[in-house]
Amino acid sequence: MESWLEARGVTFRHPRGAEGEVGVEGVDLAVGAGEVVAL
Questions:
Q1: Do residues 16 and 6 make contact, with C-beta atoms less than 8 angstroms apart?
Q2: How far, in Å, are 16, 23, 24 from residue 28 at the CA level?
Q3: Cβ distance 21 to 34 under 8 Å?
Q4: How is the chain split into domains, by residue range?
Q5: How far apart are alpha carbons 13 and 25 in whole angstroms?
Q6: Sign, Cα dihedral of 5, 31, 26, 12
Q7: Do residues 10 and 31 lie in contact, with contact meaning Cβ atoms separated by under 8 Å?
Q8: Which of 13, 15, 17, 19 is the most exposed place for a label (fewest CB within 10 A)?
Q9: CA–CA distance, 26 with 22 (Å, rounded to integer)
Q10: Residue 31: per-residue pLDDT
């Protein structure tokens, strides 16, 4: 799954700026550029 996200240059950053806390919300915001994230 890391390679799939890294391939798209997805950066894991929490909306609150707390790096390391990777959650569905963080991924949703990071990839929320028109791509659909299916976990």
A1: no
A2: 14, 8, 6
A3: no
A4: 1-39
A5: 10
A6: positive
A7: yes
A8: 17
A9: 6
A10: 54
